[in-house]
UniProtKB/TrEMBL annotation:
Main location: cytoplasm
Organism: Dawidia soli
GO biological process: one example: DNA repair
Name assigned to this protein: UvrABC system protein A
Keywords: ATP-binding, Cytoplasm, DNA damage, DNA excision, DNA repair, DNA-binding, Excision nuclease, Metal-binding, Nucleotide-binding, Repeat, Zinc, Zinc-finger
PANTHER family: UVRA PROTEIN, UVRABC SYSTEM PROTEIN A
Amino acid sequence: MAEHPSQKSQEPVGYVEVRGASEHNLKHISVKIPRNKLVVFTGVSGSGKSSLAFGTLYAEAQRRYLESVSPYARRLFHQMSVPQVEDITGLPPAVALQQQRGAPSTRSSVGSVTTLSNLLRMLYSRAGDYPRNQPILYAESFSTNTPEGACPTCHGLGKIYDVTERTMVPDDSLTIRERAIAAWPTAWQGQNLRDILTTLGYDVDKPWRDLPRKDRDWILFTDEQPVVPVYAGLTPREVKQALKAKMEPSYKGTFTGARKYVMTTFATTQSQLMKRRVARYMTSKICPECHGKRLRKESLAVRFAGLDIAAMSALPMKQLAATLQPFAVRKTTAGGDHPEKEIVAQRIAHDLVSRLQVLLDLGLGYLTLDRTTPTLSPGELQRLRLATQVHSNLFGVVYVLDEPSAGLHPADTEALLRALDRLKEAGNSIFVVEHELEVIRHADWIVDVGPAAGAAGGDVLYSGPPAGLKDVVASQTRQYLFGHAEEHSAKDVRKPAGWLTLTSVTRNNLRDVHVRFPLGVFTSVTGISGSGKSSLVSQVLVELVSENLGQALSEEEEEEGGELLENAVVETLGGEIVGGMEQIRRLVVVDQKPIGRTPRSNLATYTGLFDHVRKLFAATKTARARKYDAGRFSFNIAKGRCENCEGEGFVMVELLFLPSVYAPCSVCHGARYNARTLEVKYRDKNIAEVLQMTVDEAWTFFDEEPAIHRALDVIRAVGLGYLRLGQSATELSGGEAQRIKLATELQRAQRGDSLYILDEPTTGLH
């Protein structure tokens, strides 16, 4: 392997040397990687880059570092599993900056991610201007996430949540018997409440709007819970007669008002599905106590530079730095008669300004400290976390980054490269998994993994300076890096079938925007990072179309959970659709959230492919003779799975202060099924062997099964032929998860009049 010229004079200790790495699809590889350089790991999606950089190098560095930490403290860390590698020498401690998937908490903000909020709270606590006779507050009193600081009325949310008659009774022309009270539970419990109202003498057959106001208010908002006899199946007239005759009731029922039911269910249920169901009947308004500032009035009474901490946190970081700069250089007196306060103000302001400058250099000056993380693009969040590391002044550390250019406009890449250079110049090693050509060209050293994905990858094709990759014929990266990739001819541009028009859109940095989206064509929304693309498309457009269709925002959110209160109402601060909705009947959002949070969810189960496969096995001669149904071939159902590992394929061994060890099941040896189930075969393969096939292998194997073949065709078309059918959802990258969602959608028989919204679908792609 070639060596970087600047490395030739150095001793071997200047390298990280990996021997015998076999993590995931890596083929017992060995490689030397220089330290104190910008090293980029390249290769097609699924080739094994992340397995080498994160699964091997970072995992081993973390394991070694944690060995020096006390066992008691070690249990507080999220510890990765021990990597499959013979030996690694010359490996320093490592810090990983990975793309964060899933739903971030709405209580997390730009200020908390960058730790700037901690400093700002300290500034207000120690150097703020207090009202006369108000005692000094600790820094915790300026946090919305602590009991000392959060507004007691809204609990630090800035909004209060409640229900209204309109949200709980969307159609007041219906009767109670016709389920006018939509917020009440369905099925038996809802019928029970209606029967109780009949016993109490309310007319359940009169349109809701014709009921007296007093009756409507009591039914919806009472806190009373009367226990009354219920006569199931009787008409209101028969119920009156039964009560008069004091007949024995079917049972005793307890009434619960609609508001009490919604609020209690939301607060106490463990079911995310139930939580989401009742959340749609809740509404929000700005808290009258704190006026949306989320803090106690005592905390908001403290000023610095004439602003309370909420107003200071709402300033764009560029403006915030300008506000604090005079205090940082001691040109402005903060405390007058209190020199110690002036000194504290100068020191904290100086630290804040220096940290803010790093963020400004990365092009993030438009963000505010109170901006919540769910409203940030992945690229913005990655750069925020990178800025924290640039300012940390660590020395001799390996930084392992996962596509830091993801979500960045080419105009922003230069700022990213400057930040990486600063980390390198501080004496650190930078290991980057990347597809962006500008970042690859900027590298001191390239490790190219391939040549293809999955089982066809896992080899190190090249390790050396970028120029040397030009001679590696097997590398797919060199074709693009050195201009040998085939040119694509220009396509005919389709004409729009109509226009979706939005007006007066206001959200984050969008102010009264008017926009028209063409329909019936492929539209790309572009702009530099932070320009408002995500705010416009992923937030406002999704919410407005969902509201017009009366459609839930996302099927996955029921599993993800997330901050349901924040989603209780449409939060568009301004904007409406004024045309084009007549051509849209369905909205499909394909994002990068994980397709499942447990190993039981996999490619085959998520796409529905496994249903076809299980039916195929159930139709075999052996299965019919034994009366096995399709459920027998599910590893989630007791009758077919291995009882020892309960269908997991492995057993977890708990080690008190060490990472849990996962060992293959001693009974099924990782097959997940019991012996009787594995005796059933289709074309000489049992169900476990089919799950071990890649999509490409299964495509050939099931060539006589049209339904399965069609599903596999689509998965291959989105470039995922290398994945195993039984590959756990937890092992998939965000880009792979998004493409699986897209493939699942493309399998639908009828897809007309649908609006598809994709969030950077090329993330993770070569």
